[in-house]
């Protein structure tokens, strides 16, 4: 009714811009404190869940998760919606605040996950569902990443500088959680890895059968990790199993006595390399990964052991070095100690061949021997 008598455009604002800015400043300060409190409470609630005597919930695709990402982003979303109704400037300030607090929150999340792992290592029977909740941590990182990107698309026209920091931190947390999971596997494998290349191994040990069954069993749970981390943990498990097996060959645990024992040992190594190949082909299904290169290193070493004519060692070693340029002198020495029939002169000849055939790895080469240390060992003098 007042419209005809009053020109609204001539009215002064009810509040001065100074007062408005003060109010908005107080609002942001209070909200910052509230968000910090809410995030802390959300993390404390999630930590309690990690110790439950039941598995975490799974999403519709069967991937383990906790409610933490949903709670955090529901809170962010509600505050952003309120800010967006006031004006664009406040909306962008709110988004910036949410992303800053997300960064701080992720640092705490990372620390708590590490403490969870350390507590578990004091007694590996507890918590009962440690593996499943650590998998949920990996998957939560992927969900956090997707949710951050969703907020940016919805509330921001241009990029904000913390973008890469948040994504990098999430990547670190997920990779660390994956390494904690793999460490669990290798703690269980340790006694069986120690049995490799011993007299017991040669005379009928089933260590590799147990290794394959154990890895396969863990991966029943690891299959509930989202891509791309499921692919990454599978590749790393594959690499570590092969590296640990080759390490065992380099430890001077066994020296073959005679050609029959060499043949028997080499054939067992080839058979076990094929067991690993079969296992990781199965685990890598759908990833489009070439599992052959890593597993091929095992029979390639076995061929050096299997050779009946020592004079052909130079040829076999040059073939090995061409395929695996990171093979070093000490690796060849370890193989010749394992053979049991090579003296120092033969070693010298083979090492000269190794140096002559040294090649530079190609751009896609995956180093295998680079991290395999060999204890110092010597060969016998020629008789």
Give Rg in angstroms: 30 Å
Share of helical residues: 55-70%
Terminal residue distance: 119 Å
Shape: elongated
Order of helices and strands: HHHHHHHHHHHHH
Report the biggest beta sheet as strand number plus sense, adding barrel if it closes: none
CATH topology of the largest domain: Tetracycline Repressor, domain 2
Output the number of helix runs. 13
Mean pLDDT rating: 88
Q: What fraction of the residues are assigned to beta strands by DSSP?
A: under 5%
Question: What is the CATH class of the largest domain?
Answer: Mainly Alpha
How many β-strands, per DSSP? 0
CATH architecture assignment name of the largest domain: Orthogonal Bundle
**Helix-strand category:** mainly alpha
Low-confidence stretches at least 5 residues in length (pLDDT < 50)? none
Structural domain tally: 2
SSE layout:
Elements: H1 17-50, H2 68-86, H3 88-122, H4 130-155, H5 163-195, H6 199-202, H7 207-222, H8 229-249, H9 259-283, H10 292-306, H11 313-323, H12 329-339, H13 344-356
Helix pairs in contact: 1-2, 1-3, 2-3, 2-4, 3-4, 3-5, 4-5, 5-7, 5-8, 7-9, 8-9, 8-10, 9-10, 10-11, 10-12, 11-13, 12-13
């Amino acid at each position: 009714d007042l419209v005809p008598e009053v020109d609204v455009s001539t009215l002064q604002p009810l509040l001065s811009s100074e007062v408005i800015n003060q109010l908005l400043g107080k609002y942001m300060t209070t909200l910052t404190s509230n968000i910090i409190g809410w995030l802390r409470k959300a993390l404390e609630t999630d930590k309690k869940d990690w110790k439950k005597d039941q598995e975490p919930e799974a999403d519709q695709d069967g991937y383990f998760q906790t409610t933490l990402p949903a709670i955090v982003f529901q809170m962010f979303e509600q505050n952003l919606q309120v800010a967006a109704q006031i004006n664009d400037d406040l909306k962008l300030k709110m988004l910036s605040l949410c992303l800053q607090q997300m960064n701080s929150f992720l640092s705490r999340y990372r620390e708590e996950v590490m403490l969870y792992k350390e507590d578990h290592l004091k007694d590996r029977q507890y918590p009962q569902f440690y593996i499943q909740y650590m998998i949920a941590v990996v998957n939560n990182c992927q969900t956090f990443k997707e949710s951050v990107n969703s907020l940016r698309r919805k509330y921001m026209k241009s990029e904000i500088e913390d973008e890469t920091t948040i994504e990098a931190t999430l990547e670190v947390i997920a990779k660390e959680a994956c390494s904690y999971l793999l460490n669990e596997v290798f703690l269980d494998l340790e006694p069986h890895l120690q049995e490799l290349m011993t007299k017991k191994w040669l005379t009928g040990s089933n260590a590799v059968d147990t290794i394959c069954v154990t890895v396969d069993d863990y991966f029943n749970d690891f299959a509930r990790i989202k891509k791309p981390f499921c692919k990454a943990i599978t590749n790393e498990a594959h690499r570590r199993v092969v590296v640990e097996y080759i390490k065992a060959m380099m430890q001077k645990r066994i020296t073959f006595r005679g050609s029959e024992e060499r043949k028997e040992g080499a054939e067992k190594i080839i058979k076990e390399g094929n067991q690993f190949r079969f296992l990781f082909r199965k685990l890598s299904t759908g990833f489009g990964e070439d599992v052959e290169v890593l597993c091929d290193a095992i029979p390639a070493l076995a061929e050096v052991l299997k050779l009946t004519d020592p004079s052909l060692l130079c040829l076999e070693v040059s073939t090995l070095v061409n395929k695996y340029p990171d093979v070093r002198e000490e690796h060849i020495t370890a193989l010749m100690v394992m053979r049991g029939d090579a003296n120092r002169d033969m070693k010298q000849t083979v090492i000269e061949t190794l140096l002559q055939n040294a090649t530079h790895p190609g751009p896609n080469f995956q180093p295998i021997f680079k991290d395999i240390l060999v204890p110092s060992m010597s060969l016998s003098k020629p008789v």
